[in-house]
Amino acid sequence: MIKIVKNVTIVPMTHEVTFWGAVAFEDGKIIMVSQGNQEADRFIEELNGDVEVIDGKGGILLPGFINLHNHVSMTLLRSYADDIPLMPWLTEKIWPVEDKMTPEHIYVGAKLGIAEMLLGGTTTFVDMYASEDMVAKAGVELGMRTVLGLAFLDQSFPYFEAFAEKLIEKYGKENGLVSLTMSPHAPYTCSPETLEKAVAFAKKHNLMVHTHLSETETEIKQIRERYDKTPVEYFRDLGLFDQKTIAAHCVYLEDSDMKIMRDYGVSVSHNPQSNMKLGSGIAPVKKMMDYGINVGLGTDGPSSNNDLDMWEEMRSASFLQKVVALDPTILPAYEILKMATVNGAKALNRDDLGTIAVGQTADFMIIDTSKPHFFPCHDVIANLVYCGKASDVDTVFVNGKMVVRSKELMGDNLSNIYNQVQCAINELEIAED
Ligand SMILES: [Zn+2]
To answer: How many DSSP H helices and E strands does the chain contain?
Structure first.
């Protein structure tokens, strides 16, 4: 049945404009975007009652967020180990627990993280972890658009191909909510021998690449010592960028790296809160954009953030660039909102996502603006970016299907998910610090 959302301010993200109107959609696609009430009322009348009218209650309708970098199942490790350096954090805290994780634990952790994202207006996320089949299962159950990152490092690569082929068989040909990327963990955990085989595999199956890249000074030093290259040069020379690539972090880049990334069309997931919390540094976002590199936004995993809130990510991205440049004009609100929507869609090669227009896929959210922090509203986009919160999200549609209604998840109930998570934590014997 055709659905139409009325009584909303629409932020289409096709260009910098907002207007009062209505959005109709059917079979997952937007079929009408109208300004004012007249056209919408006529549309409803012509359908002679064969339409479901959804009252937007004077809220704001905008495209769902695209979270470009995540390790969603790490919700199980949220706030388990904080404020310690990266290597002891990984080796003493995270890896010992991950070694004990079963696919079922990964599924439960993914459900919790996906619930958090949907309730905060994220409609697509790009993951990277082990047992991604379980992340897909959780995504499908809750109605999230899920981009799997089939992860490996040198030690796990021998098992990668068979596992990846199984998932390609299952999801590769469908045009559903699940799609696939190949995810080499990072330049410092993947040798040239592993990456050469991985590139051949990606080419054979036409997979996008999703990877960590140039995240810390330590990584830059290691790769320079091993190969006398920057991490970007290392990946370029092995052919990774021949595939469409999303590179997470990119905090430390030479000008020559940025030229390479631009020339190969590498997109970046900027993850400001993770970079700040882990003390990694500040990514040169403005400079990357000036070079013509497409930069979207991601949260990174909930163990290094510690939430999956794209609203906070937008604000952090904006403020961080302004303060480091001592320039308040850098990355204005509309550019930031583009990073969380349009640029994410571009990184995924999905022109049908990230905007509200006829023919686009119906992934969007409706914001409840009846909150003190939304008044007054001199500028809708500035209020969204500088004042909006995940808890303002009232309704969410993915592929034309309602997945959040009146701030409640439709695919499961939260207390059920909390119980499953508690059981997983008990099984994993994660001690509280
Ligand atoms: Zn990451």
So the answer is: 17, 16
Cα of 133 vs centre of ligand 1, distance in Å, is 18
- Domains of the chain and CATH, by start: 2-63+353-409 (2.30.40.10), 65-347 (3.20.20.140)
CA distances from 151 to 105, 111, 166, 300 (A): 17, 19, 14, 14
Provide DSSP, 233-275.
HHHHHTTGGGS-EEEEE--S--HHHHHHHHHHT-EEEE-HHHH
Give 73 Cα–ligand 1 centroid separation in angstroms: 12
Q: What separation in Å is there between the alpha carbon of 71 and the centre of ligand 1?
A: 6
Q: What's the gap in Å between 57 CA and the centre of ligand 1?
A: 38
pTM of full prediction above 0.90 = yes
In which residue are the tokens 């068979």 written? 162
Sheet with 65-70, strands from edge to edge, namely: 65-70, 122-127, 145-152, 178-184, 208-213, 245-249, 267-270, 295-297
**Distance from the alpha carbon of residue 233 to the mean position of ligand 1, in angstroms:** 20
pLDDT tens sequence for the chain (433 residues): 999 999 999 999 999 999 999 999 999 999 999 999 899 999 999 998 899 999 999 999 999 999 999 999 999 999 988 998 877 888 898 889 999 999 999 999 999 999 999 999 999 999 999 999 999 999 999 999 999 999 999 999 999 999 999 999 999 876 689 999 999 999 999 999 999 999 999 999 999 999 999 999 999 999 999 999 999 999 999 999 999 999 999 999 999 999 999 999 999 999 999 999 999 999 999 999 999 999 999 999 998 899 999 999 999 999 999 999 999 999 999 999 999 999 999 999 999 999 999 999 999 999 999 999 999 999 999 999 999 999 999 999 999 999 999 999 999 999 999 999 999 999 998 755 4
* Ligand 1 centroid – CA 301 distance (Å): 6
